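Invent a record, attention on tokens:
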Amino acid sequence: MLKSATTTTAQTTVRHTGWEFWKSIGAPKFVCAPMVLQSETAFRRFVVEKGGCDLAYTPMMHADHFACRDFSFKEHLEDVILDKDHPYPLIAQFCATSADDFVAAAKEVEEYVDAVDLNLGCPQTKAEKEGFGAFMMDKPEIVKEIVTRAASELRVPICCKIRIFHDDEKTIAFAKMLQDAGCSVLTVHGRKREQRHHEGVPSFDLIRRIVDTLHIPVIANGAVDGKEKALEVLQMTGACAVMAASHLLKNPILFTTSSDYGSKPENAMKNALQYLSYAQQYPPPTCRHVRDHLLKILRPWLSKRTNMDLHNMIGKNKSVYLKEQFERCIHILADRIGVDLHGLGLVSETTHPLLTLHDIKCITFKPTQQNDKQQDQATRLEEEVLKEEKEELGDEEKEVERNEDNTTGNNK
């Protein structure tokens, strides 16, 4: 934790807020967004040390899960503690529907982070069903209570992340309410919650108006795909920093490269191999984290029909969960598309001869506590996440069917 985030005297601890807090953590400019099951310690360390990020968020955590101490509580808390000595500013994000849940969860992690954040921007089906994220913006009184209590009861600042309403004035009023309630830093994703798949261009003009209205730091979020775009958004909005999410998953060193860097296979494979090194040093809570990162980084090639065997091996095969196994899969992919990893200095041919997929599945190590834990993690949370994904897919299919029925009815 950055010691400058708070000032301790013999009598008391003074919590910095607003611009004072922002300056105390080094006035960062390039931010790694909070991403479900994706911005874990290994990824954060990667994007900070190699990718130019100077502020990072934990994955979004459910405050009510902390309250009931379920399986995800343990996984998330272990990952936060793993990074307790982070040499960069770290903010823990929670989604919550009550002040009691949010404050209780925040108190579990406040000693390990520089601030906590209330998620008011998640637009996904699960958020709509359970009423958290962007759908909490329809409940301003509850949101105000959460922020007010967090600002008065926690030892670290409270930050918030929002989306925009259809009405610009309503968005500005909501942002001002958050500031007045005690929010120290506000992140604004310049899209509406209906744009859950990043459709359209973010409203950078509205972010500019929010920046001009508030007297706390504002981070701009949306459509940042490279360093050039990041600098452009900073200039357009006047924000103190820019945040990247989905594009950062595709290219973890986004803030140091051009927008097309990750589209070149040799660069993507370098990113994938580097991430695996960080994952070995800072083991993620589950193997699912590793699988999802590799699938995102290598998606342009793994999504091709000719490589679906590798896609399934990396993404689904529970026999594959060790660093060397994933590396060997990348080696096969490189051979298929004509990338010379050895010539690029990314792999040693003597230690990485080309193996068949069957050989990769059969790789084993002498059992250790860490390897046993990795194998257990390879299945545990994945099953829960897959269950949630199936539920969300079912909801979306039902929505499509309803729309089709309505269309048929109108045609009649």
